[in-house]
Amino acid sequence: FTTEVFDQYSRSDQSLILAMIEAYINGVSTRNITKIVEALAGKSVSKSTISEVMKNIDPDIQKWSSRPITSHQYRYVFVDAMHIKVRENNKIVSKGVYIAMGVNELKRREIIGFKISNQESEQAWSEFFEDLRMRGLTTPELIISDAHSGLIKSIKSQFIDSTWQRCTFHLLKNIIERFPKKNSQEARTLLKSIFQAPTYQHALESKNEFVTKYENNPKYSEALNILDQGFEDATQFYRFPAQHHKNIRTTNSIENINMQLRKREKVIKTFPNLDSAFRLIGALLMDIQENLDNAKRPFIP
């Protein structure tokens, strides 16, 4: 975070404030932060005071979240959403946290946008994508996501020339859930091998062999229908370099970011307001981005 927002404080107070912010971002509850401050500085601070201190980072988060994204081209863009609880108008409501991560020409990952809005819907996704476009996002070659209906409609309307890749992990999960509870291990193994094939043609042949093997077993009929409906959307990654396949066929990389957010969010459980949610999630994403920037290896070969 920039130092300008702390200039009004003495050097010792700046150090204390930065320590409080660091603790907050790393999962220490406000209650425990008050204890830490008292132990370190002999000062007693309330939870409301800590909340006020945290507002010091708002300008940096706002600047980062609204920055132009015109300096790079993003061949691949991953999008995902998670849900949080926020207190609003004296009641607890669910909000969607929308996140987009791009892979630039340097083969590095960059969190290019996040937004907190209402529950996941086509309109909410469209507003999120419109914001990304206004900030400079051009048409990605491939957009990777799960199969939420509102999200798919929004991708197809906002990025007409982009290819959509359905997350193979989620598709496999949906199919396996329809397998018989017993004696289906062989089917699971064969199913997973379909999307690990080296080429589209090999994947198609494996898929056809799988269908032939189980099409006369009524216990697999629903699973086969899901496979048939989702196969083409889940094999678009084969259009791209083979060395990229492993990393672009699922949303695992962006869901890993969500897991990091969720780990911290569980400490809070319910955000007191929308501003506090934006503050913490934004700060965490900035911290995650710093780690991505410092990664020794690029995301894709």
TrEMBL record:
Q: Establish whether keyword DNA-binding is in the entry.
A: yes
Q: Which UniProt keywords apply?
A: DNA recombination, DNA-binding, Transposable element, Transposition
GO function terms (MF aspect): DNA binding; transposase activity
Q: Which GO terms describe its biological process?
A: DNA transposition
Q: Name the protein family.
A: Belongs to the transposase mutator family.
Function text: Required for the transposition of the insertion element.
Q: What is this protein called?
A: Mutator family transposase
The species is: Dysgonomonas mossii
Q: What is the lineage of its organism?
A: Bacteria, Pseudomonadati, Bacteroidota, Bacteroidia, Bacteroidales
